[in-house]
Design goal:
Number of helices: 5
Largest sheet: 4 strands, mixed
Oligomer: single chain
Distance between the termini: 42 Å
Strand order of the largest sheet: 1-4-3-2
Shape: globular
Number of strands: 8
């Protein structure tokens, strides 16, 4: 019995997309702006991201109409938005391992590029950061990577490009 073959359609190239941006690319030139996390412990989470990873708080406010606290943190142009709403609940328990996280659909993790994944883990461990996956090399992606957890169990991937 022969395996079923699937026809693969050619993906448009960059030049195909820029020929007529008004019809092909309705967003123009989209680029990342921020990642948002909803957490149970606002102050503790802000402190964790500042102390452990070096983020700086750029805005914090109360959204009283939503019974919610909000903050933006930034690190080297990467923005993280933190929400804490009264009576909120976590949709799923935090994953125990990186493979366990793949059993649940939806957003998986934040990835931060670092310059030296040989030096970074020692400093993060000194700061009490919990590692779920020690640094390893993914030859196919040409990346060295590892996973840590924040104070609420959210996964953060650290990557170093090897090329």
């Amino acid at each position: 019995m022969q395996p079923k073959q699937t026809e693969v359609q050619a993906q448009p190239t960059t030049s195909d997309l820029t020929v007529n941006q008004s019809t092909v690319m309705p967003l123009g030139s989209p680029r990342p702006h921020h990642v948002a996390l909803s957490v149970p412990n606002f102050e503790e989470t802000l402190q964790w991201y500042q102390d452990k990873l070096g983020f700086k708080v750029t805005l914090r406010r109360d959204l009283t109409q939503l019974s919610t606290q909000q903050a933006f943190l930034e690190l080297n142009g990467f923005r993280l938005e933190i929400f804490a709403r009264q009576n909120s609940a976590r949709a799923q328990p935090p994953p125990a391992t990186v493979p366990d996280d793949l059993l649940v659909q939806g957003y998986k993790h934040i990835a931060l590029a670092v310059d030296d994944l040989d030096a970074v883990p020692a400093e993060l461990k000194r700061r009490g950061v919990r590692f779920l996956w020690e640094p390893t090399v993914d030859e196919a992606l040409q990346l060295k990577l590892c996973f840590i957890k924040d104070n609420n169990g959210n996964l953060i991937e650290l990557v170093q490009e090897l090329n």
